[in-house]
Design goal:
This protein is mostly beta strands. The chain has strands at residues 4-5, 10-11, 16-17, 22-23, 28-29, 34-35, 40-41, 46-47, 51-53, 58-59, 64-65, 69-71, 76-77, 82-83, 102-104, 109-110, 115-116, 121-122, 127-128, 133-134, 142-145, 150-155, 161-162, 168-173, 180-185, 187-191. Helices cover 0% and strands 35% of the residues. The strands form five sheets. The protein has a ten-stranded mixed sheet, with no helix packed on it.
Length: 206
């Protein structure tokens, strides 16, 4: 099954769009963009030239994925989530050579209207709450909320709150997947148990 692109959308020559990806109304995919398989781009999504989007990525309405942004497999971008690529923009000052790269790791969720300030890494399966402003790196499985974003808890790979403190020690087993989580200090480690567990930390590239 080839990619499906709505007639109102534009995919510039040279872009790469994987099999089974669906691009809905009024989108624009720039020529240098690389989009994996089985993705969904909702209405009014823009994808820049210097972008890499993995497989099974869901980008909801009104999201612009600007240059220097990479989304690994299984990332979810909620409606009107915001990316940037210049830290201190001025209309009268050219800063295209100062782009700061943003990496959203596998399985992470960016809530509706969240803002990701350029130059950060969002860890695997992290969860950024709706309206949060992220201006620093987010640990894997971390739940971040507020302005600026604060680490307030942990989320499972299944997308449910883990009943462990932000810091300290403890263990938890997900009733849905069997994944086992172990908190050590400020890091949450996961022992994947389900058949859908990722093989490694490397994003698949289209």
């Amino acid at each position: 099954m080839s990619a499906t692109i709505h007639p109102s959308s534009f995919a510039d020559p040279g872009c790469q769009i994987g099999e089974g990806t669906r691009i809905w109304h009024f989108c624009h995919v720039s020529s240098g963009a690389r989009i994996g398989q089985h993705c969904s781009l909702g209405q009014n999504v823009y994808v820049g030239n210097d972008t890499v989007i993995g497989n099974n990525v869901k980008i909801q309405n009104n999201v612009s994925v600007y240059d220097a942004v990479t989304l690994e497999d299984d990332v979810f971008c909620g409606p009107s989530a915001v990316f940037t690529n210049v830290y201190n923009p001025r209309a009268a000052v050219a800063r295209k050579d100062e782009y700061r790269r943003t990496l959203v790791r596998r399985g992470a969720t960016l809530g509706a209207n969240s803002t990701i300030v350029c130059g950060v890494t969002i860890g695997r399966y992290a969860f950024v709450a709706a309206g949060a402003v992220v201006n620093r790196d987010v640990p894997e499985f971390a739940l971040v909320a507020g302005v600026p974003g604060r680490h307030i808890g942990w989320m499972s790979r299944h997308g449910e709150r883990i009943p462990l403190p932000v810091h300290g020690t403890g263990e938890y087993e997900c009733p849905h997947t069997g994944d086992r989580y172990r908190l050590s200090g400020e890091r949450l480690h996961c022992e994947f148990r389900s058949l859908a567990a990722p093989a490694d930390d490397t994003a698949e590239r289209p």
